Amino acid sequence: MSVTAVHPAPALFLEPVATDRARHRVQELMTDFRSGAWTPTPLERRVAGLLITSTAVDGTVTGGRVRTALWEGNLTMIEDNGGRFASVLADLVPVLDEPELTALDVVDAAGELVTAVAGLG
Fold first, then answer.
1. Please, is 73 exposed, middle or buried when counting C-beta atoms within 10 Å of its C-beta (0-12, 13-18, 19+)?
2. Angle between helices 42-54 and 63-79 (to 10 degrees)
3. SS3 string of the chain?
4. 2 torsion bin: left (phi>0), alpha (psi -120 to 50), beta (else)
5. Model pLDDT for residues 52-111, shown as the tens digit of each residue
6. Is the model's pLDDT at 21 over the cut of 70?
7. pTM for this prediction
8. Which residues have CB under 8 Å from 96's CB, separation 6+?
9. What is the pLDDT of residue 12?
10. Residue 67 contacts by C-beta under 8 Å, 6 or more apart in sequence?
11. Mean pLDDT, residues 30-43
12. Of 61, 40, 39, whose CA–CA distance to 50 is shortest?
């Protein structure tokens, strides 16, 4: 009797939807910021500044830090300026909280966006 080894097909890596959505939203907002199609409000700049301050020790944007910054912005931030910055930050929370969703390019792009919105970049 002959036994034939069956090898499973290589696993296809499908990126989680949350990671893909966060990456797209960060890139889209940064593109609009750079082109002048979107300009942050004073509140959005303040919230971005709070995020920058909260990352001073380790340089890492985390889900908890984003939640704290969004709390500062409250309802006004969701309504003003189309709520785009708040929506992008909210999309980042699950990506930052779950190690299997985290993609370094998204984290780096988010840091660049926050720095730019804070007026530091």
1. buried
2. 170
3. CCCCCCCCCCCCCCCCHHHHHHHHHHHHHHHHHHHCCCCCCHHHHHHHHHHHHHCCCCCCCCHHHHHHHHHHHHHHHHHHHHHHHHHHHHHHHHHHHCCCCCCHHHHHHHHHHHHHHCCCC
4. beta
5. 888 888 888 888 888 888 887 666 777 778 889 888 888 888 888 887 777 888 888 888
6. yes
7. 0.67
8. 61, 62, 63, 66, 102, 107
9. 53
10. 93
11. 93
12. 61
Q: How far is CA 28 from CA 10, 34, 41, 81, in A?
A: 33, 10, 17, 15
pLDDT score recorded for residue 1: 42
Q: Residue 31: how many CB atoms within 10 A of its CB?
A: 11
Distance between CA atoms of 16 and 20, rounded to whole angstroms?
6
Residue 14 phi/psi, 5-degree rounding, is: -105, 120
Any residues with CB less than 8 A from the CB of 10 and at least 6 apart, and which?
Answer: none
Count of Cβ atoms closer than 10 Å to residue 11 Cβ: 6
